[in-house]
Each structure stands twice: as C-alpha cells, then as structure tokens.
C-alpha cells in the first residue's frame, strides 16, 4: 500500500486520515496544533514533527486546509512541502481554494517533477466520518487513474473533471448552491414559524415535496434542536461564497442570489457565529421576527400586541430626535486569497427616525454595506444590524443613514425606551 502523508487535521482532515488508517494505509500526520494528532496516533498513525518530515516519509501527501493563505503557507514556509518534495511524489489537495491557487501549485510542483491534483470534496463532516465523500478532481487524468483506489478509500464517488483547477471551479459552484439552499431553508422555516406552524411538521412537508434538499436533511433538525455544533462553519461558508463572487466578476456573470447569500453570512459572522455551524445564521432571522425556530413553537399574541403598540408610536413620531450617543460599529471587509478581516470603529448616534438611525464616524464606509451597531452596556440592547443607505460627507466626518429593516418589535421598543431616557 502507498505510504500516505496527511497535513491538516481539522473538521474534515482528521476523519479522512482516520479512515485511511482503518483501511490499512500507513499514514504520517502533521497538524500545527498537536492535540489533534493524539487520537490518530492511537489508531496507528506516525506523528511528524514538521511538515517536511511528513512529506519525506510519504509517496502521496493529502492537504486539507481552511483557505488559500493557510494552504500556500504549508507549501512555502521554511520547513514546508516545497522544501522536502521528491520527484515521483503526488500531492492531492482537498482544500476549497481559488482555482488560480490550484493551478499555481500544479505548476510549481511540476518544476520539481511532482504531480498535483486539486480534489475538493462534498459531504461535510458526517460524510468524512462515514467515508462517503464525493471527490471532484482536476489535473492529469493519468495521475487521477493511478490514485483512483485511494480516493475510494475515502469516498463513495470520484469524478475526474478536467485540467488543473477544474476541481476547485466545481467546488465553488457547488458551495454557492449550498449557501443559497441553506438560506432558503432558514427563510422558509422562519415564514412558517412566524405564522405559528410547528417547524417539525413543516420540515416533514418540505422533505416530501419539491423543496426537499440535502440541506433540509442535514440542517433542518439541527436548527429545530438548537444544535449549532460545527459541521461546516459560517466563516468557511462565507470564505467560499466570496471566492465564488470573485469568479463571477472574472466571468462578468451576474449572480444576484450569490450576492444576497454573501450579505447574510457576513451578518452571521459579524454577530459572532463564525466558528459555529452555518445553520446558526437562522438566529439573524429569529432576531428579525422576534422568536426562535424551535420545537413546539406556538403563536405568541404578545408579539402582535408589541407590534401594534410600536406601530402607534412610529405614526406619532413626526420629527427626528437629536442625539449624541457613542457607539461601536463592527465592519467586515474582504481581502485576498480567501481571507477577510474585521475591525471595530468608533461612531456616534446622531438621530433616530421611524425607519432607521443616523450615525457619524470618521471612518469611510460604502453604500449598501452592512454594519453591526453595538450600543453602550447601559442600553441592554443586542447588537443591531443596519444597512448604509445614505452617505453625507462633512469636513471631519461622514454621516450615514442606516436602515434597520426587520428589527424585532421587542428590540425596537427597547431601543425607543433607551433613546427616550437619553433625551
């Protein structure tokens, strides 16, 4: 049997390496945080001290990293893959990265007479554990055929798609659909729940009708059971959607549903759900409608009463209320190579109207950008998401009109009460 190296033992990599060990392959593993290698060592894996050590001991090396930057670092660092590769080896990358990154590594390794396949997977953590992944493979077809049995040790379906980068293209197209489908599930569940329908019963209807999907099977009951343990995180879902957005720009291809999905997952990240399962974004919808999607949901008359009270207050509000309340704003920005960064900026709440807030800051923001507004602790308010709909540039600061559409009635009432106390 071929000697295998496995680098990257996260949510997907660890169960994949375990399956290779169970199938009898000799496996050498490496991970930056050593604790993830303990269970694999008990299964018989050799634990390498460096990436280079794992490469030297192996005929075939799998990599499974979180993003482009992490993958490139594994290849190019001082004791990385390129420092130890030998002619005749094969590297199989199952990370989800930009096709340009896959093609770059293919060309770099060819200079060392090393073969490279981009072979991302579908199926998330349960399929990795069960050995039922689907591989989509780009690179040399001859190299693909030479390692076909190795793929079948980890998955139930393996498809060769074409030259280097083809697997990565397919994975980003696939994950575009995953993100959109997951949000369609959340949106449908929210509509049903707001109408007072038991979400468990609604899922039964969906699974037997035209809206049935893998996302319904995987995420429906996770949402209802409030189980947001990570199978595929919000952070990684957003990373993949942003990579797909870059592709649509290159192709000059409009993708309105993709762009809406990006916005919603950005909101989930801004609210602190980044390391949780992508299904946790349902909490954005729950904030908007003022109730949870959970077992035995029943209509709540209090919500309607609060909405009626609020409606009366808003109709009576004819003038804006001048304010000067210090705020913090969370802003997330897309960078390069599959990464993004967030930062907190200072702001001031200037006034309040029936449709939103006006906030000032010295930090430049863009129209239609979503920001998360953090009020002073004394306000006892949750973070509130606003969309920049108007920008007025002054001499020393910008004034931003932020629309708060979808704010739950009970949160709006608390916000009004806080504002009244500060007048």
From TrEMBL:
Residues 314-420 form the PilZ domain. Residues 165-285 form the 3-hydroxyisobutyrate dehydrogenase-like NAD-binding domain. PROSITE patterns: 3_HYDROXYISOBUT_DH. Signal peptide: none annotated. Residues 3-162 form the 6-phosphogluconate dehydrogenase NADP-binding domain. InterPro entries: 3-OH-isobutyrate_DH-rel_CS (IPR002204), 6-PGluconate_DH-like_C_sf (IPR008927), 6PGD_dom2 (IPR013328), 6PGDH_NADP-bd (IPR006115), HIBADH-like_NADP-bd (IPR029154), NAD(P)-bd_dom_sf (IPR036291), PilZ_domain (IPR009875). Coiled coil: none annotated. It holds the Pfam family PilZ. It comes from the Bacteria. Belongs to the HIBADH-related family. PANTHER family: 3-HYDROXYISOBUTYRATE DEHYDROGENASE-LIKE 1, MITOCHONDRIAL-RELATED. This is NAD(P)-binding domain-containing protein. It comes from Paenibacillus chartarius. The lineage of its organism: Bacteria, Bacillati, Bacillota, Bacilli, Bacillales.
């Amino acid at each position: 049997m071929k000697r295998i190296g496995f680098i990257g033992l996260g949510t997907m990599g660890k169960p994949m390496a375990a399956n290779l060990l169970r199938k009898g392959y000799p496996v050498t593993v490496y991970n930056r945080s050593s604790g993830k290698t303990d269970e694999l060592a008990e299964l018989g894996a050799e634990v390498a001290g460096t990436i280079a050590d794992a490469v030297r001991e192996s005929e075939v090396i799998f990599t499974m990293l979180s993003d482009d930057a992490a993958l490139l670092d594994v290849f190019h660092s001082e004791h990385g893959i390129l420092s130890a590769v030998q002619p005749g080896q094969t590297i199989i990358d199952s990370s989800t990265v930009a096709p340009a990154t896959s093609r770059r590594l293919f060309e770099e390794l060819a200079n060392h007479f090393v073969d490279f396949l981009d072979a991302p997977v579908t199926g998330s953590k349960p399929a990795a554990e069960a050995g039922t992944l689907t591989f989509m493979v780009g690179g040399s077809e001859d190299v693909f055929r030479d390692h076909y049995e190795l793929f079948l040790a980890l998955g139930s379906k393996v498809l060769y798609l074409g030259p280097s980068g083809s697997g990565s293209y397919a994975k980003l197209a696939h994950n575009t659909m995953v993100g959109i489908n997951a949000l369609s599930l959340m949106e449908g569940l929210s509509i049903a729940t707001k109408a007072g329908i038991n979400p468990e019963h609604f899922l039964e209807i969906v699974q037997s009708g035209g809206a049935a999907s893998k996302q319904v099977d995987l995420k429906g009951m996770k949402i209802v059971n409030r189980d947001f343990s990570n199978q595929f995180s919000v952070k990684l879902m957003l990373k993949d959607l942003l990579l797909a957005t870059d592709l649509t720009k290159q192709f000059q291809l409009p993708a309105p549903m993709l762009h809406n999905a990006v916005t919603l997952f950005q909101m989930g990240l801004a609210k602190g759900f980044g390391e949780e399962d992508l299904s946790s974004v349902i909490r954005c919808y729950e904030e908007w409608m003022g109730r949870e999607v959970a077992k035995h949901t029943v209509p709540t008359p209090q919500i309607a009463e609060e909405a009626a009270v609020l409606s009366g207050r808003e109709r009576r509000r004819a003038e804006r209320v001048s304010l000067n309340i210090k705020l913090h704003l969370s802003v997330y920005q897309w960078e390069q190579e599959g990464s993004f960064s967030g930062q907190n900026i200072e702001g001031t709440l200037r006034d309040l109207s029936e449709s939103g807030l006006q906030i000032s800051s010295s930090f430049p923001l863009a129209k239609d950008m979503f920001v998360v507004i953090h009020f002073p602790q004394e306000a006892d308010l949750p973070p509130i998401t606003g969309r920049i709909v108007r920008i007025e540039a002054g001499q020393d600061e910008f004034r931003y009109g932020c629309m708060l559409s979808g704010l739950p009635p009970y949160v709006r009432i608390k916000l009004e009460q806080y504002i009244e106390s500060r007048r």
